[in-house]
Amino acid sequence: MKLSGIRVVDLSQFLPGPHLSMMMADHGAEVIAVEPPGGEPVRQIGLRDGEDSVWFRNVGRGKRSLSLNLKNPDARNLLLDLVDRADVFIEAFRPGTAERLGLDAATLRGRNPRLVYCSITAYGQTGPKRLKPAHDVSVQADSGAVFLNEGADGRPAMPGMPVADMAASLMALSGILMALLRRGETGRGDTLDIAMQDSLVAWYPNAMGPVFAEDCSPRVKDERSWGGNAMYQIYETADGRFLTLGGSELKFAHNLFSALGREDLYTSCQEPPGAGQAPAKAFLRETFASRPLEHWRTFLDGIDVCWAPVRGLHEAVHDAHLADRKMLLRDSGGRKHLGVPIKFADEPAQPDFDLPSQGADGPAIARELGLGEQDIAALVNSEAMFVAPARASQQEEN
């Protein structure tokens, strides 16, 4: 696999860091999740249909677990020895914490110049907000994303997806892979400062027209992507279901209005997003409300137009297309897992559904670092290292 031979030490928790290190594990990296004495919090968050939460199962697979009390000098020394042999180090502490623990980039890369050191924080290592605590929704709110998520009542709505978390995960993964690629030429790693806010704002190219060209925020419901375009819109059907039109190119508007016998309204779609398209939106709203979703499914599937039903999450992820794409997998116990989105023709990912008990790999990792059984027992007895029993293996079931 593409990342075979790469060792990742991941101290992060919750979503951005664990998600990115899981993607690396899916493609062959050895990922060691360093958990605090209380364990990774998402082990206990949300629903479960087995020993672990669904959340943990979908960020923790294929990793080894080392549980350390980093306030203990012996635990820190063990971690330093491990990082000396690592390729990637991931942390998501508030700025300054890594320095206080002696795990900052200067210290670790001074010991291991080949190390790629990645910090993920809400606001980054610099700037006036660097020490401000925040999770996803706060970063989205502070960055304008909640403003863009305006509801039909004109008020901001809670965002449905943790896009600041996931943007940071993907930016961090991209940066780590760039640094590893460059290291092949220079022999030296690098330090990445990944901010959730930076990562989210970088996703705004289609939102910045009014901000940059007119020096103001957009009128959300008049914009092309958020309700101002008749052909990029959500419509209710007669049975209380919803469908979306999702292609504002004029050819699609021409195809739809021709099929509906209202070619005259095609000219409305040639107007800029906003009030000029109100006649087309009003007609489509009334038209789609006159028949149930299944009627429109048959009708729209016969036209070259971008459309999709609004489906519940359960229905959506159990779609036959996603199954064909192997985005819904089952382990040998029948439990479901999200699949791998990065698909290579050669050396494809091989997700390992084994989930470690908290700290279960600690003794083996310590032995690999040269510690003897008495040393390992001392770490456990002093509560520098926590060890839980290992568990049964869970392999993929095709």
Q: How does this structure look, described?
A:
The chain is α/β, with parallel strands linked by helices. It folds into two domains: 7-202 and 325-397, Crotonobetainyl-coa:carnitine coa-transferase, domain 1 (Rossmann fold), CATH 3.40.50.10540; 232-305, formyl-coa transferase, domain 3 (2-Layer Sandwich), CATH 3.30.1540. It is 37% helix and 14% strand. It contains 19 helices and 13 strands. The strands form three sheets. A seven-stranded mixed β-sheet has the order 6-5-4-1-2-3-12, sandwiched between helices. A three-stranded antiparallel β-sheet has the order 7-8-9. Strand 1, helix 1 (16-26) and strand 2 (30-35) form a beta-alpha-beta unit. Helix 1 (16-26) crosses helix 8 (163-186). The radius of gyration is 25 Å and the shape is elongated. The two termini are 20 Å apart. The model has no long low-confidence stretch (mean pLDDT 94).
Lateral strand order in the biggest sheet: 6-5-4-1-2-3-12
Q: How many extended strands?
A: 13
Mean pLDDT: 94
The CATH homologous superfamily of the largest domain corresponds to: Crotonobetainyl-coa:carnitine coa-transferase, domain 1
Per DSSP, what share of the residues sits in E-state strands of 2 or more residues?
5-15%
Poorly predicted spans: none
Report the end-to-end length measured between terminal Cα atoms: 20 Å
Q: What sort of overall outline do the alpha carbons produce when their principal axes are compared?
A: elongated
Helical segment count: 19
The major pleated sheet works out as: 7 strands, mixed
Query: What's the domain count?
Result: 2
Using the 3D structure, state the CATH architecture of the largest domain.
Answer: 3-Layer(aba) Sandwich
Structural class: alpha/beta
